[in-house]
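Researcher: Next sequence.
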Amino acid sequence: MHELLSHPAIVAGLLPFIVALITAELFQRLRLSGLAVIAGLAATVYFIGDFGFDPFTVARKIIWLGIAASVIAIPLSLLAWSYWRPILAIMATGCAVWVTWNLLQKQSIADELLWGVGCAVYAGWQVFWFDRLQNKSVAAGNAGFALGIGTGMVALLSTSVQLGEFGLALGAASAAYLFIQAITNSRLSCGYSFTLPLSLVAGVVACYSFMSTRQPWYTLPVLALIPLAAKIPVSERWALWLQTLVLSLLTFTCAGAAVYLAWQRPF
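Model: Next structure:
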């Protein structure tokens, strides 16, 4: 039984899907269904056994960043202000540098600057563009599904197993969030509680995976296209399952391309 529960497909797939499914439904009346994504990730982290502070590893930094993002997302949803988007994007750039700092210090000054700026821009980009999806639950769910799976698969191909499980858990939780909307043909609440932790965690996971395993740099720009693909207009007259299908095809085209590029990298 223990071996079954510790299998990666269970820990990073089925478990976060079920937990996110329950969370999204339970918190819908409070307009906080978006918390499903961090609940799914937390379930994976719990079974991996990586909650804690000592030692404060990179994985634990990422976990607590996601939790902190979920906590601040709730008051942010109540305080409508047009400048939150650039402020959160700038904060995400700082988070990316903080998480990858131990790797940046080992590089030459030129590489440190180039890689640091690149990773910071990528994390800030994801937070910025996901923020523009916070009022579009189907588009945000599709973008999260594709970004989580794409980030997780790229990390796994780059031998970052734990980070890969984090990414896949985000994708599975987003899939559960989408599943409820598709079968009920009604939208769930979204907001910062969904978009902020998802984009921040996925952003820093991809950055650290890229730097620690030297995966091709061009996988990041391809993954960065996912929230833009999710913004492509689809008819509001369509059933939500059909909107989900179309947006999934668009977003997973980007995710699949990134995975293919990582798979084809020279070793």
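Model: The mean pLDDT is 88. The first helix runs from residue 2 to 5.
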